[in-house]
Specification:
The chain contains 3 helices and 12 strands, in the order E-E-H-E-E-E-H-H-E-E-E-E-E-E-E. It has helices spanning 34-45, 112-117, 122-129; strands at residues 10-17, 24-29, 53-57, 63-66, 84-90, 160-163, 171-180, 187-193, 203-204, 207-208, 217-220, 225-227. It is of the alpha+beta class.
């Protein structure tokens, strides 16, 4: 296949493996050598750089080709105007479930009494913000943290986060909006993704909540937003997304 992409362009890889159920999406420079790509995928998937096989799959998960020449560049496997590949990582030296079996991991246990004394728990958060039964003097209120009655949140504009929506790969972002919206009730978090993996530009149905580039914006529930000191995703970053 022809080398049709400029060296400063990128390729979006949807990455899956046999040895765990997690999937992720990452962008890589199109002129990256396959040997260097394997080194980066080793840190993301846990498969060995020396023994991994890279397969390109179609939308039906059927084999299209193999990325088996370490001396070739990623862009040489692309057809005209193509900038995305579904890459499946195989490594027979890794057992299925090696990175998911937590049965041998020591578990932190806390008694109910100790839990009630903590100031950083979900219970303490609900008590502080009078959510659910803590906001009803008769004790008969609901217990939905997404209710319109929620006026405070520990998530603030400008914070870095990881978006963890069930069934989707983790994505890093910056919080741009916290509050109620016109499109659905409850509390929503507006985020600007590090990569163009969103659904909008900070507006929905013509109403703007924040500004960002097209396909970089999105709205999620607080439960899907993990706040932390997450570095911004870059092409040379080896952190998993």
């Amino acid at each position: 296949m022809a080398d049709i992409l400029a060296s400063n362009e990128t390729v979006l890889l949807s990455i899956t493996t046999d040895h765990n159920s997690f999937a992720t999406e990452r962008r890589f420079p199109s002129n990256l050598l396959i040997s260097d790509l394997k080194a980066k995928l080793e840190l993301i998937t846990g498969a060995s750089n020396e023994t991994m096989d890279l397969q390109v799959l179609d939308s039906n998960h059927d084999l299209v080709m193999k990325l088996d020449d370490n001396g070739r560049r990623l862009k040489s496997y692309l057809s005209d105007n193509q900038n995305q590949l579904n890459v499946h990582v195989l490594d027979t030296t890794v057992k299925v479930g090696d990175f998911e079996d937590v049965s041998g991991v020591p578990k932190f246990e806390l008694s109910q009494q100790e839990y009630e004394k903590r100031g950083d728990s979900v219970l303490a958060f609900k008590q502080k913000n009078k959510i659910g039964r803590f906001g009803d003097p008769d004790g008969a209120g609901g217990d939905d943290p997404m209710s319109d009655g929620l006026r405070e949140c520990d998530i603030n504009v400008g914070q870095r986060c990881e978006v963890c929506v069930k069934g989707s790969a983790r994505r890093r972002a910056t919080v741009m909006f916290v509050g109620n919206t016109h499109f659905k009730s409850g509390l929503w978090i507006g985020v600007q993704y590090d990569e163009p993996l969103g659904k909008n530009d900070g507006s929905v149905d013509g109403k703007r909540y924040f500004n960002c580039r097209s396909k970089y914006g999105g709205f999620i529930r607080p439960n899907d937003c993990i706040i932390g000191d997450f570095p911004e995703i870059g092409f040379d970053s080896d952190d998993e997304m």
